[in-house]
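Late entry, adenosine-5'-triphosphate complex.
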Amino acid sequence: MMLSPKQEQAMLLLKNGSLRRLNIFEGSVRSGKTHISMIMWAFWVAGSPKDKAYLMSGKTLTTLKRNVLEPLKALLGDCFSYSLSKKEGELFGRRVYLEGAANAEAESKIRGMTLMGAYCDELTLFGEDFFVMLLSRLSEKGAKLFATTNPDNPSHWVKRDYLDNPRVELLSIRFTLDDNVFLPKKYVEALKNEFCGVFYERFILGHWVAAEGRVYDSFSSENIILAEELERRLSENKLIVSSIGVDYGGNGSASAFVLVGADAGFRNLYVLSEYYDKRNRSAESLISNFSEFVEREKSRFPMLQAAYCDSAEQLLIKSFRKAVRTTGVEVKNALKKPINTRINMLNRLISSGRFFVSSECPRVIEALQGAVWDERNVHKDVRLDDGTSNIDSLDALEYAFERFERQFFRF
Ligand SMILES: Nc1ncnc2c1ncn2[C@@H]1O[C@H](COP(=O)(O)OP(=O)(O)OP(=O)(O)O)[C@@H](O)[C@H]1O
Ligand SMILES: [Mg+2]
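Prediction complete; structure with ligand written out below:
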């Protein structure tokens, strides 16, 4: 088995008995944390009592499977087996429970357990209650916890209450992207270019830093293109997908539609057209404006397939559906992924030169330039939403592209 020098160092800690009660593998993306931590976990379990219970958990069972269980199976073959439906596995003959940590009942599921060991994938995504309960269940003598995480806000409970807490018996092992010598140089360079600002500091350098200043730090005039330039680009590289995001106005907010498109291989994301109305005269006028927008854009961009709408207004969605029935454009609920997931996606596209807005979309441009992190809320990453900046156009834009995360990014 080949290990990077950094991974060798970590392995040595296991061999010479330097592990502690809590062992946290923290740092940049793709830095080899999961790989070495699951190997060390497997070795440690193999050398621990056979009749005790062990637990492996991730934000959800699906992410646990993708990030850890499948790679571990590939590595260990017959020494590891598991069943997601039974939520159980067997690792070197030891019983391993499997649990998702993000849902509300997760905590109650582990309440009665007595554990010898636990493995946690992506710890900052866990509920704090679940983790506190988990620690109380790790009650066997010599019990250990192995966890991986990327850095987050320095006020995150993982940092504040554990990593920075001298009273906790904890070992932290830090990894940076350059520690992973197994990644192709080109891939590492591309990855570094995909992050900017606070995300670069966290995901590339591995630092716990707060988000401040402009949300879309790297958005500049280079991302804004004139209609003729847009046309030229699209004639060279045709759009393969196009969709509309819809956010409705309410008290003081605007109604916004944003049309986006992606070219072959989901290489670039384009903002093609927008609608913005702060007056919100009536539901009827909104419905007819939506239907006009869809008809006009469908004739310009025949691959336009769907509109994704804020799911808060099911009645309006029904009316929208009816109004555009004949165009073939489907009207669906937006996924509404966490705001910071959407921000992260867009920032990665901006930083790597894959995001372009038509100069005919001044509202989207103004919204991207004006978005800032909330300074009164430095303990969490919160995009300011107090009516002073245009969040409606951003929501609509995000609803239009958020579902293509897998297609835009390889990981
Ligand atoms: N020793 C190794 N031998 C071969 N491949 C490795 C090794 N260490 C890591 N890799 C590969 O490098 C990639 C990144 O490693 P890993 O998934 O462990 O990173 P990570 O730090 O957990 O990243 P993330 O924060 O994104 O979850 C994976 O594809 C993994 O298989
Ligand atoms: Mg990982």
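The pocket of adenosine-5'-triphosphate (ligand 1) is lined by residues 2-4, 7, 29-35, 148, 150, 175, 180, 182-183 (CB under 6 Å). Will revisit in the morning.
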